[in-house]
Amino acid sequence: MISAFAPLLPARVGRVPRTARTASRARARTDNRSLTACVLLFTLLLEMAVAFLPQALKLSPLQATAGFKMASGYSMLALLVFAMGFGVLRRAPALARHARKLHELHQVAGLVLLVLLASHIGQRPVGFLFYTFHAMAFGVACGALRAMLGVKFGRAASAGLLGLHIAASCLVAAGAPLHLYFGYTYPAWGGGGG
């Protein structure tokens, strides 16, 4: 008589079954697409508001105050530093497990930056900040399109969208210190800030 038995192996602790991992990844992709679609939609709405209905940006008389300009301006500067440092953060070995969360934070930072910029120019959407807003909106839209459709567009189109996203973001980043300089210098010449 031959006795066949299955050896008792210790159960793997901490392993999630393959089907559960696949379902979790699918949910994460769907959540990420929802966030990306929301970023793209808000960007388009803000662009239309600035282009066709700029008075909609005047939400409160506080927007014209120096305190609001400073608070929103320095908040934008901090968000811009985070957004521009995204590439470095994404490649950090300690943060490799959190790449998806970092990407979501990057998208939210871009949208909040755009909303703050729209409220910052709300009193007077003309001139330097007006064009900076369009450059920022273009960069955010390119990044969102790449996140949504980059795989479907193909590698070359995805790389092109990423290049446009980075170029527009660098243009905005270069304009920030310039605006800070003239924001503090121009009032000393007797003019108004903005």
Word description of this protein:
By secondary structure, the protein is mostly helical. 72% of the residues lie in helices and 0% in strands. The protein has helices spanning 18-52, 66-84, 86-91, 99-120, 127-153, 155-185. Helix 4 runs antiparallel to helix 5 (127-153). The protein is globular, with a radius of gyration of 23 Å.
Gist of the model:
With 194 residues, the chain is mainly α. It has helices at residues 18-52, 66-84, 86-91, 99-120, 127-153, 155-185.
What are the SSEs and their pairings?
Elements: H1 18-52, H2 66-84, H3 86-91, H4 99-120, H5 127-153, H6 155-185
Helix pairs in contact: 1-4, 1-5, 2-4, 2-6, 4-5, 5-6
Q: What structural class is derived from the secondary structure elements?
A: mainly alpha
Q: Number of helix segments?
A: 6
The global form is globular
Strand tally is: 0
Bin the helical content. Answer: over 70%
Biggest sheet: strands, sense, closure? Answer: none
User: What is the ordering of alpha helices and beta strands?
Assistant: HHHHHH
